[in-house]
Amino acid sequence: MSAPAPVRGPDTLGEARPGPAVPTAQTPTVRQTARRAVPWIVLALIAVVIALGGSLLTGGRVGPGTTLDATNAAPAGAKAVAQVLRSQGVDVRTVSTIGRATAAAADGATVLVYDPLGNLTSDGYRALTGEGRTLVVVEPDFEALQTLDRDVTAAGAPRGTASAGCTVPAAERAERIDPRATTATEDIALPGTFRVSDDAATCFADAGGRASLVRTSFNASPVYLLGSAAVLTNDGVDRLGNAALALNLLGGHRTLVWYLPSLDDRPVSGPPDIAQLTPGWVTPVMLLLVAVFVAAAIWRGRRFGPLVVENLPVIVRAGETREGRARLYQRSSARLRAADALRVGTIGRLSALAGLPTTATVAEVAEAVAALTRRDRLAVRDVLVERIPQTDRDLVALSDDLAELERATASAVSPSAGPDRKNG
Questions:
Q1: For 38-59, what is each residue's pLDDT tens digit?
Q2: Which of 120, 338, 392, 424 could form a disulfide with 124 if both were Cys (CB 3.0 to 4.6 A apart)?
Q3: Are 405 and 383 a contacting pair, CB within 8 Å?
Q4: Which one of 230, 249, 265 terminates a domain?
Q5: Is 58 helix (H, G, I), strand (E, B) or coil?
Q6: What confidence tens digit (pLDDT) does each residue in 69-94 have?
Q7: Are residues 261 and 342 in the same domain?
Q8: CATH of the domain at 167
Q9: Whole-angstrom Cα distance, residue 129 to residue 91?
Q10: Number of domain units in the chain
Q11: Alpha-carbon gap, residue 290 to 283, rounded angstroms
Q12: How far is the C-alpha of 413 from the C-alpha of 403, rounded, in Å?
């Protein structure tokens, strides 16, 4: 019996059957991610430099904030008076609308009103009085004086310090005040005085009879008209008896409503705006559409894991790829792009033939090829760089010249490999 034929494995055949291609992950490395973040880091540094420069130019100063705000610690604010009153057991409530002010003073309270912009109307002053409340109006305007007491009129800015000169307890305890504007309030507040033609009590009057504090009544409530906000500000309360006047004037009740009227207190006038004309269902629908758009953008824009490289399931011949790209160039008349593609391949091969490194420039390749083939440098450079094909005939001629230059270079480097080599 003859021996069975040996089984020939992959090593016997001389080549191994390729196994299934394993996808290779192309997730960006840490270095690539850091390189992409460089522009953002540069922008952040520029923003920091600009912020520091602005701080240095302004000397680190902050804005004055809201004048006479109980939470404002700037010189024009009144946080110092509010803090001292709280330490004495007074419940200081800061509000900015007439509704909240009347609600906070429902059980009887002292209500401080400072309205330099005239947001509060006559009806608002009427709503703040009555029910055992005490009203303190700082720097009242013409409408406020006409509403609270028509016999009290504005009389100009105070000229200096003034003594109490009245029997009002808060004024007597203060004895002497300085109602003039401070450095922080001279550009944003307008201290004033009053002239009285009735029996209202006047305090801190100067030689001309102009008072900085007037006590009157309105709607069965005591009303104090204080002509200067500087008496209550952080940088003015420590002058003379300003602190004593402020604490005694505002601390008469267990509750102090610190009310700075806002634009919400202005009466609505004129035609309705677009918000009033828009149906109520429009806003929810718009929000729903925005949410749907964002969800769709996230859904369509999300990535399904890291990018991978997989081998094609079919083999595409290089000639077919070359012919397909050539047809695309021809259809779009992209002769210069086609010429560049031919030149890039030729220059790479010429560089290898001339023994130049991969970092060699086109000029260096042209010089080396001209020296090897003993051709004019300008002619070689014209073929490799400068000639621009205008027609398809010019492109074909350029392709032939590139091929001929490559053959000449190969023959010059290795004569035995040239086209005239004889078979031995």
A1: 888 888 888 888 888 776 765 5
A2: 120
A3: yes
A4: 265
A5: coil
A6: 999 988 889 999 999 999 999 999 99
A7: no
A8: 3.40.50
A9: 19
A10: 2
A11: 11
A12: 15
